[in-house]
Each structure stands twice: as C-alpha cells, then as structure tokens.
Design brief:
2 copies of one chain form a homodimer.
Chain A lengths: L9 E4 L5 H11 L3 E6 L12 E2 L2 E2 H7 L3 E5 L4 H12 L3 E4 L5 H4 L4 H7 L4 E6 L14 H7 L2 H4 L14 H24 L4 E5 H7 L2 H10 L17 E5 L2 E5 L4 H10 L14 H6 L1 H12 L4 H11 L3 E2 L4 H6 L1 H5 L3 E5 L5 E5 L3 E3 L17 H7 L4 H9 L3 E2 L2
Parallel strand pairs in A: 1-2, 1-6, 2-5, 6-7, 7-8
Antiparallel strand pairs in A: 3-4, 5-15, 9-10, 10-11, 12-13
Helix pairs in contact in A: 1-8, 8-9
Chain lengths: 397, 397
Amino acid sequence: MNKGPLDGLRVIDLTRVLSGPFCTMILGDLGADIIKIEPPKGDPVRAQGTMTDGHSGYFAGFNRNKRSVVLNLYSDAGKSVLRRMLADADVLVENFRPGTLDKLGLTEAALKDMNPRLIVASINGYGSTGPYVDRPAFDFIAQAMSGFMGVNGEADGPPMRAAPPISDLVAGIYAAVGILGAVIGREKTGQGQTVEVAMVNGLLSLMAYISSEYFATQKVPQRTGNDHPLVYPYGLFRCADGQIAVANSHDQILQRFLDTLDLGWVMADPRYDTNSKRMAAREELRELIDSRMAGKSRDHWLQALNTAGVPCGIVQDLSQVVADPQIAAQDMVIETPWQDGPSLRVLGFPIKLGATPCTIRKPVPKLGGNTGNVLAELGYTPDEIAKLAEGGTVVLG
Amino acid sequence: MNKGPLDGLRVIDLTRVLSGPFCTMILGDLGADIIKIEPPKGDPVRAQGTMTDGHSGYFAGFNRNKRSVVLNLYSDAGKSVLRRMLADADVLVENFRPGTLDKLGLTEAALKDMNPRLIVASINGYGSTGPYVDRPAFDFIAQAMSGFMGVNGEADGPPMRAAPPISDLVAGIYAAVGILGAVIGREKTGQGQTVEVAMVNGLLSLMAYISSEYFATQKVPQRTGNDHPLVYPYGLFRCADGQIAVANSHDQILQRFLDTLDLGWVMADPRYDTNSKRMAAREELRELIDSRMAGKSRDHWLQALNTAGVPCGIVQDLSQVVADPQIAAQDMVIETPWQDGPSLRVLGFPIKLGATPCTIRKPVPKLGGNTGNVLAELGYTPDEIAKLAEGGTVVLG
C-alpha cells in the first residue's frame, strides 16, 4: 500500500461533528496521520444515525483514516498531554466556537511559543472577527445567511435549502486547501500560521457568477427552479417512463438536441430563432418537446442525446447512484473496516491521484482505540500511561 | 504585499469556463503563478454575463490573480511553445473532456518524459474511466446524476437543483486539494503525478451523512424541503416582518428556543415531551410558535435567540448579504482591478491565512495581456516573439 502524499504530516484534530472531521478525513485519505482527540464521551456523532452492529455509519463516513485518543482537555494533566502532542505536530485543526481555544490556554501566542512551525486551522460559522462572532452557527443557518438558500427553489415557491450540510462540507474542503497551502509556505519560511474558514464565507464563494451579475446590474437574483434563468429549452423534460435533465447550454448544443428529436427546424423557424423568442414561447416549445420525448424511454433518450453530445442525465436517487456502473467504475462506494468492528459501506475518494492514490490505510477508530500507542510514540512509559488512565486524564480504548 | 504561501509554484492553466478557472483562482489567491493559456478568441466567459465598460464581471469573478497568454494550441509552433512552458512548470491543469490532452500530443507518458516533476490535474464530469467517459458533462447534469438534486426540494415537489454551479465549484476546490497534496508528496519523491476530480464524484461526496443512512437502512432518502427529516421544531418560522430560520438541532437548544418564546413548558408537556411526539404534532406546534413569533420583528428574534445560543438567521438575498456588516468585517466583497480596465467588485477570499493572507496580487488579465512577458521569461528573444505573433501562434495583448 502506498503511503500517500501527506505521509509524515501529523495533524492533531480537536474537531467534532461535521466540518472539521470532513477536513481531517480528506487529509487522512491523502496519507496524513490524523490524531483525533476525543472527550471521554467521544465525538457526539459516534452515537448518531442508524447503528450497524452498534457502530454509527455516519461516524464511519467522516472518520476513516484517523486514530482516536481520548483525552480530558478540562484537566491540567490532559492539557499537558495535549501540549506535548502539539510540540512536534504539524497541524492543529479545531471547529469550536471562536475563543474556545483561548479558554483552553491555547492562544495563538502560546501555540507559537510551543511550536513555531505549527499550523493552526479553525473552521467556524461566521469567522473570528466581526459582529456575529459570538453567534452559534449551523449549516441551515449558514445556507440562509450566505444567500445560497435565497436563489434555490421554484420561482413561485419558498427559498430552499440543500439537504446535505454543504456549508460544513465546503468549509472543510477549503480548510484542507488552506492547511496544505500553509504547509507548502512553511517550507520557505520555517513558520506555521493560522488558517481560518467560515461556513458562511465558503458558501458565499460559491455564489461566484450569480454575484457577478448582481454586482454588474444591482438586480437581486431570483429563484428559477430547475430552469435556466437565461436559456430555453433547458431543464427537465418528460419521457415515456420519467424525466430527463437536459442542459442545452448554448445554441450549438441546442441544435444537436433538436436534431435528435427531429425538431431541427425549430432553430430556423422565425417564431423560435433567437433565445429571447424561445424564452417567450416556453410553453409552446415545452409541449413540442414533451410530445416527442414522451414516445420513448429515458434510456433511449439518454443514449441518443449523449451520443449526439448533448449533456443530459436522469435525476438519480441514492439507490440508483449506488447502482450506477459509472460510480462503480470510479470506486465511489467502498468498504471501510472499523477497529475491532464490522466493515461498513462509505463513499469513496473524490480526489484521484495517479501514483499515490487515496486508500483506507487506517480503520475507523474505536473510541480511544489509539490512546496507548499515540502516548507511547510521544515517549510516555507504560507506567505513566497507566497513571494517566487511572486518573481519568486519558481513556484507553 | 506578502507573496503568499504558494509563491514560486508555476501553474500552466489550460482550463476555461468554470471548474478549472475556479481551481486555479484559488491557487492564484494563495500566491501561485497562474499562466492562463487562452485560444485566440479567449476563454468564452470573457464574452458572458453583463459587461461593465466592456468587461465581464463573470470573468473577473474567476480569473483574478492570473496572467493571460494567447497561444494557438492547434499549430505545431503553438504546441512547441506549450512544451517549453511545461518543461519547468510545477502543475498543468485542464478541464477538457477526457482524451483531449492526448489529442494535443500531451499523453501522460509524453508529459512525464518532458518533465517528471510535473503534476497534471484534470477536472471533468464523470472521470476518465468507466462507461460514461465520453458523455458531455454539465453542472445541472452532475447535480442530477450524483443524487444531489434528488434530496433537495419540497416533500411533495420535484427534485430541485441548486442554482449556483456547485458541482463545478466543489470539483475545483477538491482539485486544489489534490494538487497541493501532490506538491507536498513531490518533496519526498521528486516525482509529479496525475490528479483527477470528477464533478459527479465531488458532489456525491457531499452526500456523506445522507448516504451513510442509506447504507445502514437501504431506505432511499426522501425530500423534506426546509424541514429537518428527523427533528421538530426546526426550519423557517414567521415573525411580524418575515421569516426566520431556526436550527434547534438538539433538545438543549430547543429548550433555549422555547424559553425565549415563553414556551418553556412545551418540553415538559406530555403531549410534546419527546421528539417523536413533536414530529407528530408538527401543525399544532407550528401554530403555537408562529403565534408567539408573529408579535415581534425578525430583528427582535434574531437578537434574542442568538443571545440565548440558538442558531438562527434570516434568508438573505444577495443585496442583503452584500450589505451585511459581518460580510464586510470578513472582507468578503472586494474590488479587483482589470489589466488596463476598470475595477470591479468580486467576492473575497474564503481562506483566511494569518501570516500570508490571500490578496489581489495580479489584476484580472486582458486577453493575452501577459503573452510577451511570459515568453520573455521562457527565454524567447524579442525577435522570436515578434515572429510567433506574426504567424498567429501567439497573440500579444
């Protein structure tokens, strides 16, 4: 098994729940050594979601390729163990509310003093400066506040959140970028630095081309459901056995689409020969298109349109996605073992590296399953470890 | 001005439109030298969106911190200039359909031969292996095929896309992670490698906790609109002057929410004392809550609930986001100059680095605005450059 490009990068991971664990899982998938510090009760996600043999699939989905150490950070002895860990670590990642690290005695100055090479990454809701710094954050709220929800949904319906917690996850991926950037920068300066990503900022950054239109026109973008705001025909169309999504993003592709439907004449018809005429004649055109497509199956049209070079697909539910031969070919559903537990299905690796591919190098850790060996690596003797465990400072898994 | 942690990293950028330019902009924001190779007509996005003084805001939003070189890759002379660029570059990024690089003579073997340290990153729709490899891809289609659309939208409504092109953008961020990982790995091996991210895979990876429930239960996840599938009260509630989003993610927060509304008794009432009872009594509870909240303004509740530690916010439209004091405090709306053009507003940097923050180091380039100086850096003499320009191999901006 290859070691991954981040082999040797030691990450002390104080995060829990979603955004932080997603960030450190990405780093772990790439070969970093993720030491997940958990309180005695564990990351709350260990107890969430449906259990398989007593094991949370939700936890498995965010915590493969990590080692778990249970450490009571609210005790002086626990803080001292953490400081010893940080002394030769490369990265510290946390997703507490701003200020929590300070309360643990880990101010920026103290951390720098302890280890000037340490990269200290924080993921939070709104950022650590500004009027909302003390507000509690949550994915749903970040979707609302960032402008993201406001543009999603039917034209005559309410703003619509995305069901996946994308503000957490996007912030987690951005934090991985920032951390790796800081690691590369450190090669030149010898110095670590802070990295911060706020969920609202990360999600707002995805409004890129919608925001540029707003900046240019001062017109607030409206919801348009599944239709393209500026182009027609585009969207979902009805076949004999269900709908198909078609993205006729420009005239050349639209011509191919219409040709495939034997409607090639439309683009030359004076009623429909510009996009604005087609936008105005949406209902007519929709009927025309639906009447053609309704005669044949989705599979027929998928085949014919893809062959013609028209971007199209079906709206798959998760059972279809998981059964999709392309998803299988891309290894996007894999199994991960748990330490002393069952193997569970999880999603695969979206980043494909040719020479040192992501792989499961470490199982999903049981709570505290690596406390002993991590402490031993730090130089603690078996006696010292036993004493820390007796005092409740650490828990051996 | 600091140089950024990626200073000295030279990226040859063959990408256009969305996913690739977003990836390379992130790298450029962190200080990498992005050499954007454009065909004589330029990246099509230069002509898209509303123009300000003849300049596309859409293009500005994806192309600050880059240099533009116009190079005709379909000529032998153009290919030879590209090869000279690649000989001492660190990274090549492309978002063509799989196979296009091969057609340009840039097979994996040829590239390795040319420069074994080169990292070759590809962003595409479905990946470069598998049955769909030749299908054209597009954000809307990736949203449909990945399962993402299927979980978004009202319970009784159609599947709903997100309006921003998130499959492009998420793939772009992931590609940045993969590239930086490969750069770090190269420190140890001296060898570059390929990096690939497919839009469908990237978006599927965001289904993380939804997919783990599916894997554990085999139940296909359903759409639930803005409501939480498992928790109530949670969602949008009506105040005197509009709605407020509230995320009562667990009982402790719910108690704070109800206390703030003077409904603290609810949690102890035998009709509502478990989450399943509350789920069953949704309509009653919604009335109760709305009747309290309707008496006061959103600002009142925002203040009171945030103070109580309840995650809440309003569904902001873009004009509100841009005017939000928190967004201002986080510098999330900034100005970028164009080379020989106007300054335009664009979104700021979601990755905040303490020592070497992202900043605008290079303006949005005019088409071919850096052809001359990049060629000169490569060692071309003024005479040679003039000849290449005469023959149409390059265009000077």
